[in-house]
TrEMBL record:
It comes from Phellinidium pouzarii. Coiled coil: none annotated. Signal peptide: none annotated. The lineage of its organism: Eukaryota, Fungi, Dikarya, Basidiomycota, Agaricomycotina. Residues 4-304 form the CN hydrolase domain. It comes from the Eukaryota. This is Zn(2)-C6 fungal-type domain-containing protein.
């Protein structure tokens, strides 16, 4: 067996005006809770250090710029005082983390990004920039209570593709050879999880743990299509159903574990985000999930070797895939 203890760190409500140090302290408290339980790796949500700002039309450039992070040229880690103590703490505890943030490159290009940082070295081992940006460029209206989804306005689509990597800093218990026993990791961000093409590209690279942070609006009929008169309860249930459906199904068809971490709860008292932080096994079963919409750590012991039956039998790509018939997927 290749045993690891892993966690999803769910983060509850963050308002537009919540002070940044408050969020930082909550993230650090979740790291401490993880260390207390012997967790080796924690997945945090998409845009974890602030509220989910793409829901607002923000015309004040200073406020807008305050949501983006710049990276240190030395080791790729975000070095702003609002963020750096998080990475320093993870390193102190020796915990690997995957966490999302709004990135601004030195050239000023904005991406919705997630980095994987080693708890041993404190270095960024890999980085992913969200490919599938949902929503619209223009707001539906200027009503401050309207849930907009303006990611196409505030980010450009990621340019790094879907690059799996072996996290050699994450060594299964009892193993002495990180080169062969450490997990193959993939990262997706929120809306990406609805696109099976993205999962398959990771599946083809032998992914064993898919990490997905998300902010999923519970009630936004103008975004989710279909029934415009849907009740809040039915909309919330539907959003949760589709979240679980895509994660469980794609974990199964790619024979991989998946750790999903939600930004959840009621931001500003009226923007509701679903919870649904969970750890899903390579057969598609949920092995642990959140019970609240608040800050919460979801922990599980996993055995990476549980990916083998799916990869060697039902979904042995070398034996059963028929790529000669899949051309339309990349030509259109
Ligand atoms: N953050 C994010 O990507 N949220 C989207 C909402 C989609 S709106 C149609 C999601 O897929 O959960």
């Amino acid at each position: 067996p290749r045993l690891l203890k892993v966690a999803a760190a769910q983060i509850g409500a963050i308002d537009r005006k919540t002070p940044r140090p408050d969020v930082l302290n909550r993230l650090i408290a979740l790291l401490d809770a993880a260390a207390g339980q012997g967790v080796q790796f924690v997945v945090f949500p998409e845009i974890a250090f602030t509220t989910f700002f793409p829901r607002y039309i923000i015309r004040d450039e200073v406020e807008l710029d305050s949501y983006y992070e710049r990276e240190s040229p030395e080791n790729g880690v975000v070095d702003s005082p609002n963020v750096a103590p998080f990475f320093a703490h993870a390193r102190q505890l020796g915990i690997d983390v995957s966490i999302g943030y709004a990135e601004k490159t030195p050239e000023g290009i904005p991406y919705n990004t997630s980095c994987y940082v080693s708890g041993k070295s404190g270095n960024v081992i890999s980085k992913y920039r969200k490919v599938h940006l949902p929503g619209t460029l223009e707001p539906f209206d200027e009503d401050p209570h309207t849930t907009n989804q303006l990611e196409k306005r505030y980010f450009i689509p990621g340019d790094l593709g879907f690059k799996a990597f072996r996290a050699q800093s994450l060594v299964p218990r009892g193993s002495s050879s990180p080169e062969t026993s450490s997990p193959v990791i993939g990262q997706l961000i929120c809306n990406d999880r609805r696109w099976s093409e993205a999962w398959r590209v990771y599946g083809l690279q032998g992914v064993e743990i898919m990490c997905i942070g998300f902010n999923t609006t519970a009630y936004a009929p103008q975004l989710w299509g279909g029934d415009q008169s849907i009740s809040r309860e039915r909309a919330r249930d539907g959003a949760m159903f589709h979240h679980k459906l895509v994660v469980q199904a794609n974990a199964y068809t790619n024979a991989t574990y998946c750790i999903t971490a939600a930004r959840a709860g009621w931001d500003d008292g009226h923007f509701e985000l679903i919870a649904g932080s969970m750890i899903v096994d390579p057969e598609g079963h949920i092995v642990a999930e959140s019970r609240t919409v608040d800050d919460e750590l979801v922990v599980a012991d996993i055995d990476l070797d549980a990916c083998l039956p799916g990869k060697e039998r039902t979904f042995c790509f070398a034996k059963h895939r028929r790529p000669e018939h899949y051309g339309m997927i990349v030509s259109q």
